[in-house]
Amino acid sequence: MPQYTTRGLRLNYEVVGVGRPLVLLHGLSNFALSWAPQLGGLVARGWQVVLPDLAGHGRSAPVTRATTTQDLAADVLTLCDHLGLDRAALCGLSLGGMVAQQLLVDHPERVAGVVVVAAGPHLAVPGAEAMIASWNELWRSENGPVRRLEATWPLLTTAPYRSSPHGQAFYEAWRQVLTGVSGPALAHVATGLLAFNVAAALPHVAVPLLAVAGEQDRLAPPAMVRAVADVVSTARFVAIPEAGHLVNLEQPATFNTLLHEFLAGLSDSDS
């Protein structure tokens, strides 16, 4: 994968296709190619898809201090500058959905539209600190990234997906990637998430926004994700049945239809 430098870190990314730019942002401890089920359809529809491994994730450099969504959003903006992208659409899941919101409120002029998946407008919810503390303890242990995946896989996904060939294949791919990821780095990113809160800024957003939840998501329940759409006048909210947290992987056909319709609307509005 090619690399770029931001905050003294060498971060990996990939670019697939040609056309209008769309940046896909993965979830916490995940990696860029978790968006694989979306790539073929997006490229066929004329999108240039940018796939970063966020700092501390995948094959990007680890971080050595608490890393906030502001830091990660600034990294994405630097990548857009590196690629010469003045304005791009964003789609982010979980951590990626928080980073997308952060970039939207910090630099709305650089954002053509946003799809927020499985993420709310803040983490000021009961149990968040305790949950992240337990994850951090796992991540800092021996083989921490793999152990945390093993512990949370049932929380992230539905039983039918876990037992399916696609679910088993993705689990093994994710597990393999995590063998090369720094656990303390993931803990630094998770700690930084506790400061995430864009709720007060979202009502001022005038950029098209789609908020997507999995109906069976236990980490980011539909009500949490709906809170993003409820305060943005340009927003639409959709809950996808029979999906947990990894909506784009569990129900790719339904998710892809929603994504394509939203992006087509952006194209029409610019024509």
Task: Produce the secondary structure layout.
Layout: E1 3-6, E2 9-16, E3 20-25, H1 36-44, E4 47-52, H2 69-83, E5 88-93, H3 95-106, E6 111-117, H4 128-139, H5 144-156, H6 159-163, H7 165-178, H8 183-193, E7 209-214, H9 222-230, E8 235-240, H10 247-250, H11 252-270
Parallel strand pairs: 3-4, 3-5, 5-6, 6-7, 7-8
Antiparallel strand pairs: 1-2, 2-4
Give a description of the structure.
The model has no long low-confidence stretch (mean pLDDT 96). This protein has a single domain, classed as Rossmann fold. It contains 11 helices and 8 strands. α2 packs across α3 and α4 runs antiparallel to α8. 47% of the residues are buried. The protein has helices at 36-44, 69-83, 95-106, 128-139, 144-156, 159-163, 165-178, 183-193, 222-230, 247-250, 252-270, and strands spanning 3-6, 9-16, 20-25, 47-52, 88-93, 111-117, 209-214, 235-240. By secondary structure, the protein is α/β, with parallel strands linked by helices. 45% of the residues lie in helices and 18% in strands. The longest helix is centred in the last third of the chain and has 19 residues, at 252-270.
